[in-house]
Write a structure and sequence with these properties.
Layout: E1 12-13, H1 15-22, H2 26-34, E2 41-43, E3 46-50, H3 51-66, H4 70-81, H5 86-131
Antiparallel strand pairs: 1-3, 2-3
Helix pairs in contact: 3-4, 4-5
């Protein structure tokens, strides 16, 4: 998740425009707003999203594709928006990605074991069928 571009433009977006662009429901965008990932301005009852919100939504979607939790995504987005040094940010980013990778690798190993067991049961069932003339 690269850092959001600084010097954001003055472009604004409606919730519907963002929903169409990111193929999300209005409810999903409101959920991200409630989670503190988006902070739209208000014009009466209408939400007005800035380029910053659009970038945060893009980073959120990227984090979701990686399988990160909402808390991890929020932490990383907030880190990238802070004026702090990038070394701690990158270290934390690597920690989050490393932990997530390790979790996926463990789940994949479990799935491989399960697949091996299924293959063995299938072979056993085929052998029994063959013995019984089926």
């Amino acid at each position: 998740m690269p850092a959001p571009a600084s010097g954001a433009s003055s472009a604004t977006f409606t919730i519907g425009e963002l929903a169409r662009e990111f193929d999300l429901t209005l409810r999903a965008i409101r959920f991200y707003e409630e989670a503190g990932l988006l902070d739209p301005q208000r014009r009466g009852r209408q939400r007005v999203y800035t380029q910053r919100d659009r970038t945060r939504l893009k980073l959120t979607q990227r984090g979701k594709r990686l399988g990160l939790s909402l808390a991890e995504i929020k932490e990383l987005v907030m880190m990238y928006e802070s004026p702090r040094d990038t070394v701690p940010q990158l270290r934390r980013y690597l920690e989050v990605l490393g932990a997530h990778r390790a979790d996926i690798e463990a789940r994949m190993a479990d799935l491989r074991t399960t697949l091996d067991e299924i293959r063995a049961y299938e072979a056993e069932a085929r052998g029994l069928l063959k013995k019984q003339g089926g």
